[in-house]
Write a structure and sequence with these properties.
Elements lengths: L5 H11 L3 H10 L4 H10 L15 E9 L2 E9 L2 H4 L2 H17 L8 E2 L2 E2 H12 L4 E9 L7 E9 L2 E11 L3 H18 L11 H17 L7 H16 L5 E2 L2 E5 H7 L5 E9 L4
Antiparallel strand pairs: 1-2, 2-5, 3-4, 6-7, 7-10, 8-9
Helix pairs in contact: 1-2, 1-3, 2-3, 3-8, 8-9
């Protein structure tokens, strides 16, 4: 039997919201494997489907930068919120976002920053502030030259610093209508946290994993065997409405899907891509 530590139990509780004893049992039943324990709790109806694993470095700040045809998002991680909401820390992540927009995001640590590089500057900040400070996730979108579409960049501020950042690119529409659509989508994505643009983008292995969990859940509930396929498909459709942007209800008008919102902008309107980063989430 695997050795189940209090730390393991606490980690599972954080990402599932399940009770302490349920988490301990889940880990024991699955030889201490966190991922399998998460699925086991869901199968037993003791955990939410939308919980995400927290990052070890769960403090930091996010900033975004938008300049016409280019948008960038940068996450900077640290150990405490005290450092994260400081002016120097916030100023640094904002400056790096501008650098990424101008120079690309392939080698952010090597970009020139003041009298050194981004990587060297962060090392110096770590030494000065007495905390581990490291570059987190980075995203950069650029519109195709001479093409249609629009970009938007949104930052949600909480506790005096950016905690959620979103980039969105729309296509098939231009001008003010495209800019308005991109902005509405950015606000929605920040709130609703989709993971994919459409159900077609969800990996097949993820769909099968969800299907297996829903099948186990339904059997656990004692539903008739003949009814299982329909119930499982219904749960799977509900899952797609959670993770696929186009199938979600618009946060400002839940009865309207995002797919309908995009279609209303024009017959060729599409969501080309998006990125969403939240401090403390993978």
């Amino acid at each position: 039997m695997a050795d189940i530590s209090a730390k393991d139990v606490a980690a599972l509780r954080k990402v599932t919201g399940a009770g302490m004893m349920d988490c301990k049992q889940a880990l024991a039943e699955n030889e201490g494997d966190l991922e399998r324990a998460k699925d086991w709790l869901r199968e037993k109806g003791k955990a939410g489907a939308a919980k995400r694993a927290g990052r070890a470095a769960d403090q930091g700040a996010i900033d975004v930068f938008l300049d016409g045809s280019v948008a960038a998002l940068v996450e900077l991680n640290c150990e405490t919120d005290f450092v994260a909401k400081g002016d120097q820390f916030k100023g640094t992540v904002a400056a790096i976002a501008k650098l990424v927009a101008a120079n690309g995001g392939d080698d952010v640590a090597g970009l020139a920053f003041e009298a050194s590089t981004v990587g060297e500057h962060l090392t110096q900040m770590s030494a000065t502030m007495g905390e581990k400070i490291e570059l987190g996730r980075v995203a950069r979108f650029e519109l195709p030259a001479g093409g249609d579409g629009a970009l938007d960049a949104y930052k949600h501020v909480q506790s005096e610093r950016g905690v959620i950042g979103v980039l969105v690119e729309v296509g098939g529409v231009s001008g003010a209508k495209a800019a308005e659509l991109a902005h509405e989508l950015a606000l929605h994505i920040a709130s609703a946290a989709p993971r994919y643009t459409s159900r077609a983008d969800v990996p097949a292995e993820e769909i099968e994993r969800e299907r297996a969990i829903y099948d186990a859940q339904t059997r656990e509930e004692g539903k008739p065997e003949a009814a299982l396929p329909k119930i499982v498909e219904g749960k799977l459709n509900g899952y797609f409405k959670t993770v696929a942007l186009l199938e979600q209800g618009f946060v400002k008008e839940p009865k309207q899907t995002i797919e309908a919102l995009v279609a209303a902008a024009g017959p060729g309107a599409t969501v080309r891509r998006f990125a969403r980063v939240k401090i403390g989430e993978e």
